[in-house]
């Protein structure tokens, strides 16, 4: 049953998830000191897949069954794998704060995609304004890449990752996968990426695991247990119990937390261009998810 309003535990959980998602890019940076990008992303998916299968088994949910949406699930998994391939490579080239800002342009990809491919989800006036504001934010972020410590290539890869993240959401909304349980939707994405990313790491001659310090191991555990398994499951649980639009309106907090953690932990520079980009993207996310009149 969908509740019409948030209660206090849901608000606390939602803000906590926004903090968790914002922290993730910073944590990945620590893992990259000892595990190459694609191998790290692959190991994360392998571990989270095993945890999710255990969770489904304990809940009595079948892992292997004919759900009638297998190839759609494979497509979702492929998009998910490409998204994280791009994110992890981007983090070797640019800052965690820039990666977060560009990655969280994804809601605008979703808004455009659902407008085009999902019936009854046309753009609202507030969403059009939000898209334009976010575009201005991306301009400031790219200008900061030219003058700051980030790189245009890394930022471009993070923006491409946002496109694939948005495409994953649009495919989910427009395909039979939308009728699957949250666990099964997540399982497809984790399993396909768990198979694809280590193979790609090997094909690209990555060094793989080079150093397993406590920081590297802690980073991988954070990504596997808290982010890919518990974080995603909690997010899907919220989506199944509360209105999606109200949940989405909180996502503007994630890039704010992401830049804050990168500044506090990694001592990344905060320029006026980046702060302007952050505020514009956050405002755009809020407007895209704000109820309004359709155009």
UniProtKB/TrEMBL annotation:
Topological type in the membrane: Multi-pass membrane protein
Location, primary (coarse class): membrane
Coiled coil start-end: none
Compartments, record wording: Membrane
Superkingdom to which the source organism belongs: Bacteria
Keyword Membrane listed: yes
GO cellular component: membrane
Entry keyword ATP-binding: no
Alphabetically ordered keywords of this record: Membrane, Transmembrane, Transmembrane helix
Pfam families recorded: EamA
Transmembrane region(s): 41-58, 70-91, 97-117, 129-146, 152-173, 185-203, 215-235, 247-266, 272-289
Residue ranges of every copy of the EamA domain listed in the record: 10-142, 153-289
Family indicated by similarity: Belongs to the EamA transporter family.
Protein name: Permease of the drug/metabolite transporter (DMT) superfamily
Organism: Amphritea atlantica
Lineage: Bacteria, Pseudomonadati, Pseudomonadota, Gammaproteobacteria, Oceanospirillales
């Amino acid at each position: 049953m969908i509740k019409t309003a948030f209660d206090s535990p849901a608000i606390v959980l939602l803000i906590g998830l926004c903090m968790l998602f914002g922290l993730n890019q910073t944590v990945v940076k620590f893992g990259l000191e000892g595990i190459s990008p694609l191998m790290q992303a692959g190991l994360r998916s392998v571990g989270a897949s095993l945890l999710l299968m255990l969770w489904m088994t304990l809940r009595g949910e079948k892992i292997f069954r004919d759900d009638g949406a297998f190839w759609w699930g494979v497509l979702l998994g492929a998009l998910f794998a490409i998204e994280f391939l791009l994110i992890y490579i981007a983090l070797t080239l640019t800052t965690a704060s820039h990666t977060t800002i560009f990655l969280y342009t994804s809601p605008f990809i979703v808004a455009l995609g659902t407008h085009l491919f999902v019936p009854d989800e046309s753009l609202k006036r507030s969403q059009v304004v939000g898209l334009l504001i976010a575009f201005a934010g991306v301009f400031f972020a790219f200008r900061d890449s030219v003058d700051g410590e980030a790189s245009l290539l890394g930022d471009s890869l993070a923006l491409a990752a946002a496109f694939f993240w948005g495409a994953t959401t649009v495919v989910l909304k427009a395909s039979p996968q939308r009728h699957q349980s949250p666990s099964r939707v997540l399982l497809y994405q984790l399993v396909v990426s768990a198979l694809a990313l280590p193979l790609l790491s090997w094909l690209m001659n990555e060094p793989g695991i080079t150093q397993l310090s406590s920081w590297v191991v802690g980073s991988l555990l954070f990504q596997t247990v808290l982010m890919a398994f518990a974080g995603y499951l909690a997010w899907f649980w919220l989506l199944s119990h509360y209105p999606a639009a109200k949940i989405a309106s909180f996502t503007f907090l994630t890039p704010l937390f992401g830049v804050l953690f990168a500044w506090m932990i990694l001592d990344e520079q905060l320029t006026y261009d980046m702060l302007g980009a952050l505020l514009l993207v956050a405002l755009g996310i809020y407007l895209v998810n704000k109820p309004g009149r359709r155009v």
